[in-house]
Amino acid sequence: MDQRRRMALLTEAAGLDRDRAVGITQVRGPGRGTTSLMRVMQTNACSLSCGYCPTFCGGKVRRTGLAPEEVAQTFMEAHRAGLAQGLFLTSGVPGRAARATDRMLATLDLLRRREAFEGYVHVKLLPGAEPAQVEEAARLATRISVNLEGPSDAYVRQLAREKDFSGDLLPKLEHAGRIFRDARHARAAGERRRAGSTMNLDRPWRSTVTTQFVVGAVGERDREILDVVARLERQALLHHAHFSAFQPVVGTPMEGRAPTPARRELRLYQAEHLLRDYGFRFEELAFERDGNLSLDRDPKTAWALAHPEHFPLEILRAPRELLVRVPGIGPLAARRLVAARRQATLRFAGDLRGVGVDIPRAGWFLTLRGRRLAEAPPAFQLRLFAHGEHLTRAPYDTPEPPCAYG
To answer: 130, 96 in Cβ contact below 8 A?
Structure first.
């Protein structure tokens, strides 16, 4: 098959218009700059009833499928041309999930064995994939995602009646997480795994698992979502979670439902970062009475204002573990601040700005040599409209699954 034909097929399978780049996007990693990923749906044919997705079983979109050879060859051509450094591979579920998963795994096997590609490969495991396929994916992929989509069986069944949270999705995620966690422990203990292959056998200990939630479509609460995320991260089974604010799409069963404000998605990301990078426990997160995070205050500020007994902190004495809990001070700024006070004399607010402290946000919660750096808490911006009410509420008209690439 010629390159033009392969690129056209990839365009259709990725759910993109023909005049746009074929699923290649720039992704930024914390502290690692950006990388270019080719995003491919091996097929957009699907027998599932996901109510938010235009490719659901009754969706009026053109169906396209790609052979493993087509995906592998086209990706390698893009990679050699410098267009794509890594691959994100997903698929619809046309009939048996195991068969569709086998086609994805065959693609990865071609890349690893025949093409000797040792770069980044992210595969999204399908609902219904079998345990042996999870293990094969862990051998071939750099990252595995298992999209839970909701925090319990009741919510997931409202999103798609065929999906099983407690009997399929969650166990599959935990299985993949244990494989990678055990590999990390084995490496730490010096028990490096060996096998008769010329591939990079160190991959499992460097690999991670992610998941994604559809937020706001079926009434789930932030507290319920973050409870699941916190447990999985605490057990080292999940690296991080993605959150996708629900947006109705034309022609889907959920077309008439209200969109979820983007601010709710942002708040979930901020809260998840507090759990993963700032040392917060789930029990410390400040939820509103309805079980959701505040849309008007970020989660760290909400916690700080709810716990005045911890503040103000004296900059010259507070440990790093407490400094990172101050609004306006992140992990890097806290480390720099601790290092700076060992090497120099901190006298003015400008000295703190130099190490990355956001004085307008942090000042009320800090003292420097006994003097508070601000006379009042950070200003609170009142809103003219409820969150999301000033934006159009018309459903999107797109053939691209909103949550396919998380």
So the answer is: no
